[in-house]
Amino acid sequence: MSTQPTSETKQYSESRVGYLTRIGIGVPRFMQGVFPLVGRGVNETVQLDDDLVYTVPVGCVAELIYFRAGNFCDDIIYLTVTLNSEPVRYFPVGPKADVHVPLAIVEQNPAGSRLEIGVGAPRGLAGSVVIDVGLLELPEGA
Fold first, then answer.
1. What is the pLDDT at residue 85?
2. How far is it, in rounded angstroms, from Cα 106 to Cα 88?
3. Residue 112, φ and ψ in degrees, nearest 5
4. Could you tell me if 117 and 37 are in contact, meaning their C-beta atoms sit under 8 angstroms apart?
5. Across the chain, where does the E strand assignment appear?
6. pLDDT tens across 32-84, in order?
7. Cα angle: 12, vertex 25, 86; to 5 degrees
8. The pairing of beta strand 86-93 with beta strand 41-47
9. Other beta carbons less than 10 A from residue 4's beta carbon
10. How far apart are CA 120 and CA 44, in angstroms?
11. What pTM value is reported for the model?
12. Where do runs of H (alpha helix) occur along the chain?
């Protein structure tokens, strides 16, 4: 008798996000692109771009899964995720550096929630930032 696993007995690990996406319950959504920025001071964040706004549809919830960013500027910046105009996450990005944060604590944001990406930077700093934010959209109650 063989002790090798067959296709019927193979076990593999799959993430929750991967599973929900594979079975069609979870729908990946992204906010991404390369955007110019001009700093207004480190204590003032501004919305980076209209393309970096996501509103959770009626009948759904959304989870922020990961955040990636690259800073082409010569000074440190920070990016924020705001929920209904209130900052909920901060991501500092060093000069000419990048960051990738797979989020360990993931909240479900209810229908109607508005998530947007903002930036804070030293006054007058000009440059560009690349953003890649991954969300998982789920039906309410999933």
1. 94
2. 12
3. 90, -15
4. no
5. 27-38, 41-47, 53-55, 60-71, 77-83, 86-93, 97-102, 108-109, 114-121, 126-139
6. 999 999 999 999 999 999 999 999 999 999 999 999 999 999 999 999 999 99
7. 110
8. unpaired
9. 6
10. 6
11. 0.84
12. 16-22
